Amino acid sequence: GPGVPDGSIRTTCPYCGVGCGVLATPDGRGGAAIAGDPAHPANLGRLCSKGSALAETLGLGSRVLHPLRRNDAGGYDRVSWDVALDEVTDGLKTIIERDGPDAVAFYLSGQLLTEDYYVANKLMKGFIGSAHVDTNSRLCMSSTVAGHKRVLGSDTVPGNYEDLDSADLIVLVGSNTAWCHPVLFRRMQQNRAQRGARIVVIDPRVTATAEDADMMLAIKPGSDSVLFAGLLVHLDANGLTDATYLARHVSGYDEALANARELAPTVASVAERTGLTPVAITSFYELWGATPAVVTAWSQGVNQSAQGTDKVAAILHCHLATGRIGRPGGGPFSLTGQPNAMGGREVGGLANMLAAHMGYSPAEIDRLSRFWQAPNMARHEGLKAVAMLDAVAQQRIKALWVMATNPAVSLPRADQVKAALGSLDLFVVSENVLSNDTLSAKPHFILPAAAWGEKNGTVTNSERRISRQRAFLDLPAEVKPDWWIVCEVAKRLGFVEAFTYGGPDEIYAEHAALSAFENAGTRDFDIGAHAGLPKRAYDALKPVQWPAPAGQPLGTPRLFAQGGFFTGDGRARMVPLAVPALASATSEALPLLLNTGRVRDHWHTMTRTGLSPRLSAHASEPCVHVHPTDAARFGLIEGGFARIANAFGAVVLKVGFDAGVPPGSLFAPIHWSAETASHARIGAAVQPACDPFSGQPEMKATPSSIAPV
Ligand code: SF4
Hints:
By secondary structure, the chain is α/β, with parallel strands linked by helices. The protein has 25 helices and 26 strands. Helix 3 crosses helix 22, helix 4 packs across helix 15 and helix 9 packs across helix 11. The chain starts with 8 loop residues before the first strand and ends with a strand. One of its GO terms (cellular component) is membrane. Keywords: 4Fe-4S, Iron, Iron-sulfur, Metal-binding, Molybdenum, Nitrate assimilation, Oxidoreductase.
């Protein structure tokens, strides 16, 4: 098409959940020119700083290129694929026979493609018979999944990105969208410039997003659900609810309203709990109430919380009460962190889900077992990420296979996690890179997995849009796709027929057929239009929003404007909310709340973005951001070093003064690790307290001390 370079391949960016379309034009020397894809609906040609620098991150300098086996001296020997696969299989077999299937686990990643994820889940949950498959999506948006399932009945995002272009009011809760979903933030800014939309930011910290907002509500950490409970009370008291929608499509409104009145009886009580002024609260409530085309979008400030599920429910309640859901320009919207968090869930990538968004009811287990002809179906939920690593530490899980993620940096209590990994009887890692903190826990096998540019499959972004991520580089040396590695082990375990696939196209065709299997519109995830999709059509697949049931290949832009929730009776269910509280309170010894998050130009544990000098220029080293009054109180010097400590661990970081960080808080970035900057691995000082419904840890409020070093 016009503006599309010759020889370019359409693919998607490997970073955030915006899921931007990318045009990659290989240079024939292992590199490629990168541009935004003007035809992709997520970004319409735009890319952010991270996406634009992708070309600088290609190359084999830091890659693992051959299977490696740990030797007795703690070093690694190159072995053939046959030896590596045989020995990994033997190790799994021995442990399964000795200790049962629940002694083995997979820890996966929102970086995997849907096809990789599908076969890993199929192997563990249908054939090995353990449900211990969890993923770093647990750290990212599992509270949204649980909130959606509790209230909407299914793991469904109702709206889409076009709503951000046509909303009159966009409320961003706990989201530094300008840095973490930059292309979407640009769409919001364009809406404001062209149509006069207003942007409100709710966040304890004055972020780059907040600085650009029309209104900023600097809320006390952990009090979001009070603010939205108060909004529900306001909507009801002012006759702004949609009685028809409530009567037809929602259960539990009276109870939810009574609960909201207890949590937030008056604006004054909301002010006391949230730390906001009554004037600010009232003007926010009036603006929200008066604007039918309102999108409330949220991200990790809501999700990474011991009450994340309640926070999501509190937001959903306000949209349901006004019928502002699934309408152009109006609805609740979760901004997914990772490129394929959603695709992973579609195939059962969380320990509490089965494939195709099914759960562990006897009927669902039976349905899946018949579809797969599975000999060993898992029959109960598996362990979620934090609990899974506890089980590793307690040696209840004895074999763990980590794919495409770096838990020794990213999980809470990262030091203990790293020690636990080192104690496994069998520890296998599928990786791109030759060194990171998880690899320094010394896996028995390091399996060289395909990286972005070499991988071929599908991903699903924040708006339920499935896109092809296409290979534009050859697989180097002995590197293999993740799906292939898993299938080879499955075949060696004796499951030859169920794991013989000619390519990712055949896996996708099966996944699509499963989504439609005995699903007469009863389950949200249905891509029956792609069941048995031939390879040619798979290769040419255009981005499409699920559900795309048989006969509806163009997909579904929005859901629920006319009800139709996947709850059995079709009605959404409002739920009572707990009294808002943080998991742990500050004390004299631990007087500050440690908040963690992202910087603009790095992604996760920097194994890719760290390769680009341009990206590292924006924030070249990790800093703890401290309000100047706290700096004075604790004797900190700007540019000096400080030790942040609590019962879980300690880190040492350079001090940066930041008046946007509220007094009583610290902010530190998640990206750096012991491999990239010693003592800067902030996960070491993050508490493991989790939301009771989602199991997502509260990573933004760990009571901590700080002192100069
Ligand atoms: Fe788009 Fe996110 Fe990639 Fe930036 S990081 S180009 S916003 S997908």
